[in-house]
Amino acid sequence: MTAQPLTGETPPADGSLPEGALEGVGKRPFGVYVHVPFCATRCGYCDFNTYTADELDGGGSLGGWLEALGRELRLGARVLGGPEHAPRAETVFVGGGTPSLLGGTGLAEVLDAVRDSFGLSADAEVTTEANPESTSPELFDTIRRAGYTRVSLGMQSAAEHVLRVLDRRHTPGRAVAAAGEARAAGFEHVSLDLIYGTPGERTQDLRTTLDAVLSAGVDHVSAYSLIVEEGTALARRVRRGELPMPDEDVLAANYELIDNVLSGSGLRWYEVSNWASDERARCRHNIGYWSGGDWWGAGPGAHSHVGGVRWWNLKFPARYAATLGSGSSPAAGREVLTEEDRRIERVMLELRLDSGLPAEVLDRGGLDEAWQAVEDGLLRGERLRAGRCVLTDRGRLLADGVVRRLIG
């Protein structure tokens, strides 16, 4: 997982954590996130920590990144208990960036580095993101044999003019073809990731995209509304008046259409922006994030969380690699979450799940707001009477607002 840097304390050079953070390590869900910072081109809407070859200007390389990654993962295993006591990874998620640019061999080396440091649990879920245009039957076959169990393909849309606005390079049919290639290679779990609300996207464009998704026979779909992030090329185009801002009412209508189509085809929501065919198809790694688990985020700009301590790495690949090469942790900053911080994060994340949030997490004012949200049709009354806050269909459309009400 990557995010914008936060303010916080300076981490120790050896990467060690406060003693209390290590209590319970291995008893909570534990995953490894690997951030691949490389992209062939920069998409106009993206504000992730990624770099094209021109932006690196010789300051980073695949080989140097892989070597540094191995060093950080070994450091992580030492910090979390050493060979005898470090938790095995129950989930691994390789994201970016464009992990598929590493090729099958490079992705296999990434997984080997996780095995050699933390090790993998017997039933580990191992996911890689992939851009459709940088995949092939050979890549899927190689990574399936290497131990990957899940592929998440960045489809975004099946409409050519929408892909152009997003600066995506693949053709409209390539994502569906890639999903078929992944399934043919033996992947039971394949996800297609969508973005809706792109300027110029029509309802028919979204219907065409959903028809394509259903034709692919995947067992998981993620769908996120377009967010215009400051500092991106898309934000500059919107500011100049070249493109309109996404309309909130249109986004809500699009979400309802997505949910109706996917639900009608057997893909049920389990998190506000995620649908799966059954329990096994759900992304266990992301569930670990949403349910307060531990994870070690390795790679430039990656974020980690263990036992209420969150930290984030140096962002530029060359500096990240040089710091690890000198024997120091690449962590740039960290914060120790208070009990109130952790309670608020539980409300923010668990409320988005179909299982909802235990009502006991709320303070008195929050509980009063929860009952008012029932009256407003945003939370399910029968579930709140049973002790859980669960969003209604309308509540999902207004999930962020419900969160703000419950945390005051």
UniProtKB/TrEMBL annotation:
Gene3D superfamilies: tm_1862 like domain. Residues 1-21 are annotated as: Disordered. GO terms for molecular function: 4 iron, 4 sulfur cluster binding; coproporphyrinogen oxidase activity; metal ion binding. GO terms for biological process: porphyrin-containing compound biosynthetic process. GO terms for cellular component: cytoplasm. The keyword Isomerase does not apply. It holds the Pfam family Radical_SAM. It comes from the Bacteria. InterPro entries: Coproporphyrinogen-III_oxidase, Elp3/MiaA/NifB-like_rSAM, HemW-like, rSAM, rSAM_horseshoe, rSAM_sf. SMART domains: Elp3. It is found in: Cytoplasm. CDD domains: Radical_SAM. Keywords: 4Fe-4S, Chaperone, Cytoplasm, Heme, Iron, Iron-sulfur, Metal-binding, Oxidoreductase, S-adenosyl-L-methionine. Residues 24-268 form the Radical SAM core domain. Probably acts as a heme chaperone, transferring heme to an unknown acceptor. Binds one molecule of heme per monomer, possibly covalently. Binds 1 [4Fe-4S] cluster. The cluster is coordinated with 3 cysteines and an exchangeable S-adenosyl-L-methionine. Belongs to the anaerobic coproporphyrinogen-III oxidase family. HemW subfamily. This is Heme chaperone HemW.
